[in-house]
From TrEMBL:
Keywords: Cell membrane, Membrane, Transmembrane, Transmembrane helix, Transport
Pfam families hit by this protein: FtsX
Natural source organism: Anabaena lutea FACHB-196
Chain segments annotated as transmembrane: 21-40, 263-287, 308-332, 355-374
Presence of the UniProt keyword DNA-binding in the record: no
Name the UniProt record assigns to this protein: FtsX-like permease family protein
Protein localization: Cell membrane
Length: 386
């Protein structure tokens, strides 16, 4: 039965090639809009938790007033070392974070770069090229530079690879770039450096009080129960700190960007608008198609074809449009993802899950439009036509 209906639906669409082209272009446009909005939204979340993902530990200690990595609030490192005395805890590592003025050695302009400080004797951050360069950070006024930083910080990567070293200023202090690593940018951070805890405190000077840290990483003994250790720490540590699993730490960061800033809402709204725009375009095409062929549909009714048969034809038209329109939308989005990634350095990539989700949304969008357009078809009466 379905096989006999598909050619009719296809012939209906392909007869008016210009109209079909407009419908495919409209669906592709809606898909591109949804792909971009959802892709950038996901890049927002992925970029925000890149540092979280790299941490070598199961539990994180932060201030009770902590909101996100760009909304810093320090607490006493005594809390972290208190945690070291609890059963199941193997080691603790304080982490220092702050934005520091960085002088571009190419044009002498100053930009704020995100500095990450920790003890180079400890394996805290698992990132490419960090571990092999930690020995260099034991020297005074040395940093590692993020390959994924934006271009406003200068041609550091190319200079380092040519000269095996770069000299510039951080907070009006001469420093040496002694290695490269890769972390990447986010909506709140345009570039990163890694340095030792001693260098970090020296660079910040009077702006940073000793004994205050931004968060602490807790590594557990092999076989220790993460949930039990977290519950024990929460029950015994003062309430001026939060005890979070690594997953909770990441979830809190994503929640901050999704609910406490307009960015997450904006991209979600953009995806919804794309869905609505596509639905309206497909509805207009299908409604016009039904209206133009109303005498033919009435004739089919007059010779015995049921409403259900004709309704399935319109529904199949919608599905054909969804399938064909998705292909150029997907291809264009791939290209735009690449261009956006090159321009912004954000981690925006096409995923199988997102492609499937957008295809389902496209099918749903066209199906809803078909259901609305079917109202016109059901009203077709052979007596009115003839």
């Amino acid at each position: 039965m379905w096989k006999r209906k598909i050619p009719l639906a296809w012939l209906q669409l392909s007869r008016e090639k210009a109209r079909m082209g407009v419908a495919i272009a409209g669906i592709a446009f809606a898909d591109v809009l949804m792909f971009l909005q959802l892709g950038i939204r996901e890049a927002l979340f992925d970029g925000a938790v890149q540092l979280h993902n790299s941490l070598e530990g199961e539990i994180v200690l932060v201030s009770s007033r902590y909101k996100a990595l760009i909304s810093l609030d320090q607490f006493s490192q005594r809390r972290l070392y208190q945690a070291l005395g609890f059963t199941g805890v193997q080691s603790v590592s304080p982490i220092y974070l702050d934005f520091i003025p960085w002088k571009n050695p190419d044009n002498q302009q100053t930009w704020r770069i995100y500095a990450i400080g920790f003890n180079p004797e400890e394996k805290v951050v698992n990132l490419p090229s960090v571990q092999e360069n930690l020995n260099y950070l034991r020297e005074a006024d040395t940093v590692l530079f993020d390959r994924g930083s934006r271009k406003e910080f200068g041609t550091i990567v190319s200079q380092f690879e040519t000269k095996n070293g770069v000299r510039t200023e951080l907070n009006n202090r001469q420093i040496n770039v002694v290695g490269l690593f890769r972390l990447g940018t986010s909506f709140g951070v345009n570039g990163n450096i890694i340095t030792s805890d001693v260098n970090f405190l020296r660079l910040l000077g009077k702006r940073r009080e000793r004994g205050l840290i931004d968060f602490g990483v807790i590594k557990l003994e092999p076989g220790a129960d993460v949930n039990w250790v977290i519950a024990n720490l929460k029950a015994n540590l003062p309430n001026d700190v939060q005890v979070l699993s690594k997953q909770e730490f990441m979830a809190q960061e994503k929640s901050f960007w999704n609910t406490s800033t307009p960015v997450g809402f904006t991209f979600t709204l953009g995806a919804i608008i794309g869905f609505v725009v596509g639905a309206v375009i497909v509805y207009q095409i299908l409604y016009s198609d039904v209206s133009d062929h109303l005498p033919e549909y009435a004739t089919l009714k007059a010779i015995g074809f049921k409403n259900n048969y004709l309704l399935v034809v319109v529904f199949q038209e919608a599905l054909i449009l969804a399938a064909i329109g998705f292909i150029p939308g997907f291809a264009i989005s791939q290209g735009l993802y690449f261009m956006t990634r090159q321009a912004t350095l954000l981690p925006i990539i096409m995923t199988v899950d997102r492609a499937i989700f957008i295809f389902i949304l496209t099918t749903l969008m066209c199906s809803i439009s078909a259901l609305i357009a079917m109202q016109k078809l059901q009203a077709a009466d052979p007596a009115d036509v003839f």
